[in-house]
Structures are given as structure tokens and as C-alpha cells.
Write a structure and sequence with these properties.
By secondary structure, this protein is mainly alpha-helical. It is 69% helix and 5% strand.
């Protein structure tokens, strides 16, 4: 027995996804717990570290459920990816904790920098509210509420649970040795410009399609299974899954009438070999006019009885043997016509419901096609009768392109809003550039790497780039906040090392997944973490003597 089709695929994908989720989740959990234990030497830190993220997720889902009719699956999937940056908030609190400073005082000192990053990101996501796409609006509400909740939790609730630090990470000789090596690194200027130009050249000049619009390329179903499914469909004469005829009408009755008018043309296409067959709702549920015509074709009771009596006389049947038949015919002749609603609860309901779609003030009749060979002939015939041959592949690609265009427009406005917020917080061009440059250059480098390997970008890459940008803003802001204070620089380095190691572990494992969506998100964010960390070290840390020479910056 060979099993195929959506049901078999869902079982295959579900089993594979569950297996991968288990091993990825197990390795993630073990790795993160060990990392936090080594970094902070306290069993409470792994427990406390998840509280802001858990609070953020619950608050975001609650806000979406309150403001919208339902929560889209894309909101849950993309939303929890985008708020991954909140795991960095408690890490900064833990790493900056030191003897002589209470957790509340520590949180108060970190709050301006933390709030700047959160406000900038939330203002950027506000642009998604005006995208005109319900999914993006839900994503904006979820992300904004979640980020704000995590930040407030880190600022006011988490310090009450954190024990006073018995030691200062700034006292670590290894961390000090590492920072001294970093300080000896040159300040790249021309090199960064050359790298940026090279990355831009790769992005612009690399041959091949830039965007991936074909949703079938994202399926985790192995190619051999898809090929076998296509072969079985061809042998069984199953309907074509790509092309379908559509008829628009004012209501269901008009759609059925139009379908019936199209049947002679469809029969001619079958006879000419353009298609092997077709299926439509009117085959199971004729129009009212057709039903009435068939009722009128039934003989009247007297005529039917006379004809039946004449036939029974020459047969061995009793004279009253066909009385139930006479009653059934009369009942059918007088019965009211069937409507789509009358099929509810019957085996015909799913079939008719799939081919006759009723909306508010309109209805659409679908005609499924089998063995489509001549697309042009079918399209001409459909157009001549007011129908339309719909290419599902082309339609899905158009939807993807439209959705992507809205996301890109929202991202452009978000970048402006984020830059304005950082400028308002820092008020110095040099400091603003040090914060924004690593994030912008990282985005360009990630795009260049993906394009260099011939990877066509999809919506999941875009969402991952947004997350990577949020991480880069966080790293750069805290390096800039440390200024020239050696101890603060060491604490910030410790925090960013832990944050980047945690994020890199999670998304590197996702990049190893066989599921294309998870692989796209994991690979993109992992690249972003590496580039953001390196560039933040090279660009965002304060040059020696700047704060002595610039009192406004020091303030």
C-alpha cells in the first residue's frame, strides 16, 4: 500500500518536526542552563532568566486576543521569534550586578540604556500597524506589548528576586585580559567602507533571483515523496492542484446556473483532449431551474399509474407492488428545490462546499480540472463564458510579493523611526553612528552571505533580519553606555558574551534543521549574532578620551 497526499504528508512532517523539536529543545535547554551556571555560578539565574520572556509572551498573546477576533498562527510563530531579544534584558542585569550595589540600584542605572533600545524597537514596530495587513498589525501589537512587558519586568519585578552579588564579573582576570586585547584592535574606517562596498556589490550583482516567491520551495516534504504523489495523482486522474476555473456570481443560485451553462464547453474540451475531465458543484446540486425542469419531466400521477398498470398486467408482479414507487415519484414531483443549506450533514455537503463558495453578497463556483494539457485552450474557453482560469501557483506568488512589499515599506519607516529615537536619546552624531552603524552593516553582510551562497530570500529571512537588527541595537547601545569606565566595559563585555553565546546556540541548532523555514530563520539570525558582536566591539565601544573631551557626551 502506498500512502500519499496532504494527510500522509502532514503525518510525515509532523513526525519529523516533533523529532527535531525534541532534540533541538533538549540541546538548547541543557546548553543554556550550563552556560548560565558557568557564567553566574548560581542555580537561581537559569530560573529567573526565563521570567521576562514568559511574561512577555503571555502579555503579547493577551493583548492580541483582546484587540483582535483571533490570534493568527503567523503571529505566534513570528512573534516569539522577534521577542527573542528580551532574553538579553535579564542577562545585562545579572552581569552588571556587583557588591555594594543593590539589584534595584543596578536596574535603575541600566534603565536609560535598556529603555532606549526598547522604545526604539517599539516605535519601529508601530509602523506595522499601518501596513494594511491584519497579520502584520497583530505582529506589531504582540511584539510591542511583549517587549514593553519584558523591560518593565526586568526593571521593577526581577530585582526583587535577585540576590545581591557576592562578586563582580569585572574582577575576572581572564575577562580583563580579553578586553585589553580588544582595546588593541584598530578602529576600522576604510576597511569597513571596503567591506560595505564589497557586500553591496555581492547583493546587487550576484546572478539569480533575489526573492523566493514559490511557497512549494519551503515545503519540508522530501522531493521523492512529491514525485511519487504527482505520479499517483496522474494515474488516478485526481484533479489538478495548480489550475482551477472560477465563476463569480451574485449568489449561489446564479453561480450554479453559470456552471451549467459552461458544461457544454467543458465537454467539448474533453472531447478535444484539452482536459481529461472536470468536476463542479452543479453536478451534485443542479440549479433551481434545472431541478424544476426535471420535476416537470416526471409524469402526472394518473398518467404514471396508467402506464404502470399496463406494464404490470403483462408481468408476474401484484397490482399494488409499485405503490411506494408512485408515492416517491409524486413526492419528488412536488418537493421544494434543494438549496446548498439542505445538504448539511449529508455526504454531499463537503463536496459541494469545496466547489461552491458563498460570501457576503457574492458566490464563487469552482471547476476542478483533471489531466489539463492545453492551458491556452481552457483559458480561451473560460474567458468566452465569463469564467477565469486561476493559476494557484501564480496567485500565491502574487500574494507573497504583495505581503513582502508591505513588510519592506513598514521596515523602511521603522528604520527612520528607530534612528530618530536613538538620536533623541544620545544627542550626538558620533555616538548615534556608533550605535546604528554595526546594525546596518550587519544587515548588509548577512544579505551578502545569503546571496553569495545563492539563497533566494523569503519572508522568514526578513523576519530574521529584524530580530538580528534588534540584537545588534542592544549590543551597540550597551557598549556605548559603558563609556570609558573599565569596570563597566568589562561587565558589558561579559553580558554581551553571554547574550550572544545563548542566541548563537539556539539559532545555530535551528540552522541544522531539515525544515526549510527553521533553517532559514536559524542561519540568518546566527550570522547576524556573529556580525553584530564583532562590529559592536570594533565600532560601538567608546574611543579613549572621548568623554573627557566631550562633556555633553559624558552627561
Amino acid at each position: 500500500i502506498v500512502l500519499s497526499g496532504p494527510g500522509a504528508f502532514s503525518v510525515e512532517i509532523g513526525g519529523r518536526t516533533e523529532t527535531e523539536a525534541k532534540w533541538i529543545g533538549t540541546f538548547d535547554t541543557i546548553g543554556l542552563v550550563l552556560l548560565l551556571l558557568v557564567a553566574y555560578r548560581s542555580w537561581k539565574i537559569p530560573v529567573l532568566g526565563v521570567l521576562p520572556l514568559a511574561s512577555a509572551g503571555l502579555a503579547g498573546l493577551g493583548a492580541v486576543a483582546l484587540l483582535f477576533d483571533g490570534v493568527h498562527g503567523i503571529t505566534v510563530a513570528f512573534g516569539f521569534t522577534l521577542i527573542g531579544v528580551v532574553q538579553d534584558y535579564p542577562i545585562h542585569l545579572f552581569s552588571h550586578q556587583r557588591p555594594g550595589v543593590t539589584p534595584r540600584e543596578n536596574a535603575r542605572a541600566l534603565w536609560p540604556t535598556l529603555a532606549t533600545g526598547v522604545v526604539a524597537t517599539c516605535i519601529a514596530y508601530l509602523t506595522f500597524l499601518f501596513s494594511g495587513v491584519d497579520g502584520l498589525r497583530q505582529l506589531a501589537v504582540f511584539t510591542i506589548v511583549a517587549l514593553a512587558t519584558a523591560a518593565l519586568c526586568t526593571r521593577w519585578l526581577l530585582p526583587a528576586l535577585v540576590d545581591p552579588a557576592p562578586r563582580d564579573v569585572a574582577a575576572s582576570p581572564r575577562l580583563l585580559a580579553l578586553w585589553r586585547r580588544i582595546e588593541r584592535l584598530p578602529r576600522p574606517r576604510i576597511a569597513l567602507a571596503v567591506v560595505a562596498l564589497a557586500a553591496l556589490a555581492v547583493v546587487a550583482l550576484r546572478p539569480g533571483a533575489f526573492w523566493e516567491n514559490d511557497l512549494s520551495r519551503l515545503t519540508p516534504v522530501p522531493a521523492p515523496l512529491l514525485e511519487r504523489d504527482a505520479q499517483l495523482r496522474a494515474e488516478l486522474g485526481a484533479p489538478d492542484v495548480r489550475y482551477v476555473l472560477t465563476l463569480q456570481a451574485a449568489d449561489a443560485e446564479a453561480a450554479l446556473v453559470a456552471s451549467e451553462a459552461l458544461r457544454p464547453t467543458l465537454d467539448a474540451l474533453v472531447a478535444d483532449g484539452a482536459i481529461d475531465g472536470y468536476d463542479l458543484a452543479a453536478r451534485y446540486l443542479p440549479s433551481v431551474a434545472r431541478q424544476r425542469a426535471r420535476q416537470r419531466a416526471l409524469p402526472a400521477p394518473d398518467a404514471l399509474r396508467a402506464a404502470l398498470d399496463a406494464a404490470v398486467v403483462r408481468s408476474p408482479f401484484r397490482p399494488d407492488a409499485f405503490e411506494p414507487f408512485l408515492e416517491d415519484v409524486e413526492r419528488a414531483r412536488q418537493a421544494p428545490p434543494l438549496r446548498p443549506g439542505d445538504l448539511a450533514g449529508t455526504p454531499l455537503a463537503p463536496r459541494v462546499g469545496a466547489l461552491l463558495l458563498e460570501g457576503e453578497g457574492h458566490a464563487t463556483a469552482l471547476v476542478s480540472l483533471t489531466g489539463l494539457r492545453d492551458v491556452a485552450a481552457v483559458e480561451r474557453a473560460a474567458r468566452a463564458h465569463g469564467a477565469r482560469l486561476l493559476d494557484m501557483k501564480q496567485a500565491s506568488e502574487s500574494l507573497v510579493a504583495d505581503y513582502r512589499a508591505r513588510i519592506l515599506a513598514a521596515l523602511a519607516l521603522a528604520a527612520l523611526a528607530l534612528s530618530a529615537t536613538v538620536w533623541f536619546a544620545l544627542r550626538a552624531l558620533r555616538r548615534v553612528l556608533r550605535v546604528l552603524l554595526p546594525m546596518a552593516l550587519t544587515t548588509l553582510l548577512v544579505l551578502a552571505v545569503l546571496r553569495g551562497f545563492g539563497i533566494e530570500l523569503n519572508l522568514f529571512h526578513l523576519v530574521s533580519l529584524i530580530l538580528a537588527a534588534g540584537l545588534g541595537l542592544d549590543y551597540a547601545l550597551f557598549f556605548e553606555h559603558a563609556g570609558e569606565d573599565r569596570d563597566d566595559q568589562l561587565r558589558t563585555l561579559h553580558a554581551v558574551l553571554v547574550c550572544s553565546a545563548m542566541t548563537l546556540l539556539v539559532f545555530s541548532l535551528l540552522a541544522l534543521s531539515s525544515v526549510p523555514v527553521l533553517r532559514a530563520i536559524g542561519g540568518t539570525v546566527a550570522l547576524g549574532v556573529v556580525f553584530n558582536f564583532v562590529l559592536a566591539l570594533l565600532v560601538a565601544r567608546a574611543p579613549l578620551g572621548e568623554y573627557d573631551a566631550d562633556p555633553e557626551a559624558a552627561a
